Backbone:
């Protein structure tokens, strides 16, 4: 059976939406409610010097997150047990250029990754940096991201010795989109391949088909899978429309992609060439997201639109199970914690629903601050980055 590539233990959350980018938490004993205002089930909260929308990554007792404004870019290391900021490292403090940014993107939207030796971060200014766990810069690269109409927000992904930087820019005919693999130790480019896609803000994922590993990407108009080590294209499916930010996930032997103006599509991996007609198991229209990524437990698939429409589908057939409009607007992708789905809106209110075929609200909880990022789950805790605060929730 194909599977996502991970051997991550419960004490690490190494990239955007977890070890395989799925938003599925490890087994954890988390509270059903919390309230930052009263301190209920709030282990700690730490004010961050600079704002951002990047999600935290965790390795054992260290949490890493970024912050930035028009003048500064910083990486923070926080003690996972106490919330103490252990170090702050400025990135390219002498840089005086200004990227093109949308107000929703901000200067620190992308999530980094870690291998337990270094933490890797990326900023819309084009800076990609590796730091050791003492906060010292090991290497730094700069890429031209000036054609990004909203500001670069694709997060970084590691696989074996390679760090992937997906840089999708402009329209396909201008030839600016490309995918870069950097050596994680030196920062030198191992390969750099063009991509026939328009600008996107999605994050790739690496899966194991049982026969080979595939690096899966999504951007209008293609979902494309590559050899992770060489960049050679394996297959592609034409199914993406619109500006794409929702990232692909892998569950139930399928890659699931969704985007506004397109369809929720279930794709079988392992093909060769254009497999649009042969490897799509099903596709369904609906109120699909333009920011948040899908979620699946292998039985069901959930999507969440920016305006709060939660939809649930059968993962094998695509049959719609329910739709329900939630209060609030959403940029944070849904997460699966045990048999519950966590949904955090822009105001910082979390709606917890049952991971079942029928909609059932279990509880609500509050951070009391705007949340644009996705939570991290490790150490029997949930780490959530508000616009200016890092929260730790736990019993």
Residues:
């Amino acid at each position: 059976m194909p599977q996502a590539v991970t051997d991550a233990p419960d004490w690490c959350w190494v990239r955007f939406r977890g070890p395989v980018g799925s938003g599925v938490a490890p087994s954890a004993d988390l509270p059903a409610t919390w309230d930052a205002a009263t301190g209920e089930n709030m282990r700690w909260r730490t004010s961050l010097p600079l704002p951002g929308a990047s999600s935290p990554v965790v390795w054992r007792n260290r949490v890493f997150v970024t912050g930035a404004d028009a003048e500064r870019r910083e990486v923070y290391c926080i003690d996972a047990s106490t919330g103490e900021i252990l170090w702050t490292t400025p990135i390219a403090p002498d840089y005086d250029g200004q990227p093109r940014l949308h107000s929703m993107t901000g200067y620190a939207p992308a999530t980094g990754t870690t291998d337990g030796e270094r933490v890797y971060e990326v900023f819309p200014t084009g800076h990609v940096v590796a730091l050791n766990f003492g906060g010292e810069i090991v290497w730094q690269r700069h890429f031209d991201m000036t054609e990004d109409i909203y500001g670069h927000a694709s997060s970084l992904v590691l696989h074996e010795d390679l760090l992937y930087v997906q840089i999708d820019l402009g329209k396909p005919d201008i030839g600016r989109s490309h995918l870069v693999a950097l050596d994680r130790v030196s920062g030198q480019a191992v390969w750099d391949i063009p991509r026939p896609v328009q600008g996107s803000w999605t994050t790739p994922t690496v899966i194991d088909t049982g026969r080979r590993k595939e690096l899966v990407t999504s951007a209008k108009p293609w979902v494309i899978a590559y050899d992770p080590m060489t960049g050679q294209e394996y297959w592609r499916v034409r199914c993406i429309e619109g500006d794409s930010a929702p990232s692909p996930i892998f569950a139930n032997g399928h890659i699931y992609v969704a985007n506004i103006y397109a369809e929720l599509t279930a794709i079988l991996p392992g093909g060769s060439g254009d497999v649009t007609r042969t490897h799509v198991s099903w596709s369904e229209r609906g109120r699909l997201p333009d920011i948040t990524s899908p979620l699946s437990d292998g039985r069901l698939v959930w999507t969440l639109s920016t305006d709060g429409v939660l939809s649930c589908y059968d993962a094998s057939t695509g049959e719609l199970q329910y739709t329900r409009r939630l209060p609030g607007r959403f940029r944070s992708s849904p997460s699966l914690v045990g048999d519950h789905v966590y949904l955090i809106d822009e105001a910082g209110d979390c709606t917890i629903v049952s991971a079942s075929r029928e909609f059932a609200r279990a509880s609500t909880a509050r951070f009391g601050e705007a949340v644009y990022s996705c939570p991290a789950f490790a150490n029997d805790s949930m780490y959530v980055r508000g616009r200016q605060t890092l929260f730790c929730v736990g019993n």
